[in-house]
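Fold these two proteins, one after the other.
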Amino acid sequence: MIYTLTNGNYTAQVNSTGAELFSLKGPDGFEYIWTGDPDYWTGHAPVLFPMVGWLRGGKAKLDGKWVKMGRHGFARRSEFSLAEEGEGKLSLRLVSNEETKKCYPYDFALTVTYTLEENGYKTAFTVENTGDRPMPFTIGGHPGFCVPVDEKASFEDYVIRFEKEETQRCPGFVGEGLLDYSQINLELQGQREIPLRHELFYRDALVFEKLQSSTVALVNPNTGKGVEMEFSQFPLLGIWSAANDGPYVCLEPWTGCGTIATESDQFEQKKGMESLPAGQQKTYAFSVRFL
């Protein structure tokens, strides 16, 4: 089912499958969210739960048993139900069921809430442990944004701009999407800006960790046009576009990441894994502002 929400300034559409935001248009009709063109990438803004990234061989040991789980978990392909609907606001909910328990043997509820704001929107993920034992999980957003942003410009006219100067060593990838911290995909030494170019993503995503910044922007320095994300509640940030020169970039706030090449296959021990106590809930949110 497709839900439409508006605040008189922006109009968004959300698919109940995956609770995925697949359209957000501004006052002049410009489409900010990636269109899902299959020539480049069919996604729009997937919800990543109960894990981010790849498992080694697509499987891990969970609750004493081997389970299979696709990239970024199952939420993005699951059917959500309506939890709340109002002017400029929508909440969709996924509850554990027989299908989810085949690969993730926990009782949970995941609520995804979109709220349109004056200059953009906010996404909130609320994870509830409805079972009687601790529940391991990671969660993340994956919104793709069309570049250029509401102007006639080229992809290379933009930069990735952090709020503060950053020193980072982004890990490389080996095999089926395993992070390899012995390799360097990109290195920053006290820099705020990275010139945007397609080659940045030819070796997969740029993965940043424990950034000093709480915001990151895709911005054209010449015009100031762009999109900015506030992600302070997430310890990791992925920046990605498929290695096929697509006219979009994904800004991805994560609480954890895919399997590291040196890690075991124990699901509960993966980097960034949360352990949510029985009967408790936790909310993570990020905001997007159009410049």
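Now the second one:
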Amino acid sequence: MSASPLLALSPLDGRYSNNVDRLRGHFSEHGLIHNRVRVEIAWLKALAIEPALVEIAPFSPATLAELDSVVAQFNADDSAAVKEIEATTNHDIKAMEYWLKKRLGHNVEVMKASEFIHFACTSEDINNTSHALMLKAGRNEVLLPAFDKIIERLRALAHQHAELPMLSRTHGQPASPTTLGKEMANIAARLIHARDRIAMVSLTAKFNGAVGNYNAHLAAWPNFDWEAFNRRFIESFGLEFNPWTIQIEPHDAMAELFDAIARANTIALDACRDIWMYISLGYFKQKLKEGEIGSSTMPHKVNPIDFENAEGNFGLANAVLRHFSEKLPISRMQRDLTDSTVLRNMGVGFGHCVLAVTSMLRGLGKLEADPARLAADLDACWEVLAEPVQTVMRRFGIANPYEQLKELTRGKGITRDALRTFIAMLDIPAEERKRLSAMAPADYIGKAAELARRI
């Protein structure tokens, strides 16, 4: 069958394949096999360099260089060769072990130590370490930089429009004004916090044998401190060593990471909906793209498709990620295999997330504020100044200020002149009457501009 994207079962490998190419090296099956090879080679080297393990001789510089080259030069053809062996073994890790022995069969030093390839390991020792490395790279090299671009664009919008007044809407109704920049700063601040939580998750791995007790290790070398040795091995990858496990690493750190990503996605999804509404209200216009069509029948349309695409894909990402975080920490007794097929879909969750962030960034890049539209909306809502007027009335002890302004403004529009007439009759200091009378909705923004610039 043709490998055309038009025949792809998943849109991530079809319609959107170019958007998620950055993830393939990390989360494809080739990426998984490559990491397994990396871990197996590192384990063999670690055993050979340990003086107490006298039965395996240290490798020469030439052999060490060759072992490193196996990892560095590992390619899709090598993965295919491993898969060909797996067709016979029906076991992916054993196939990789056999491939390594075949690949290094000409090296006399390695062949003398060939039975130390995968020594005392259960498949999960290799797999859980590989999965942690995949997640670490996918997070640090793809996901966090993508969120950083969103944050920087929002920060730029916040600074650019820090002083541009905007009518707020609480419950969908006109409310105390803000600035367009302050609303962008709010989103940026939330995403900065969520992004930091993603980065802070310490990814864990175990390397302690079939049920987590070093049974095989101690059978071979009873007096060797395998726990300390294996801790150093895991930490050499920049991972946190987990000393208490069953056959599998319990995936709690994975669940923490997936939950953290989902929280960031939810914040971004919320932002997409708000910006969609601002576009609908005319507060933002979208830059036109030559040749692009908004509707098949309405030529005038410029649709907010990037934010809609982002919203949909943030939702898909979270559906997958939340299943991961709920399912993966659960395993019957010392091991069942239900996590295996789920873990193979990590790239799906990351893929929809990266696709969503890419779409959101593209949408943010098209935004142009419309100051005239923002000003017109504010000028049509003088009733929002009922809040500062009644608050000043409270300051000076006037009875029932809230009720007076409620009677004047609730459920009805109010003009500038009507509000000023009301202010002129207030028994408050003249300078306060003058200050309130001079205030327009666009002036009533509090610290919004300052807060927008601080992000």
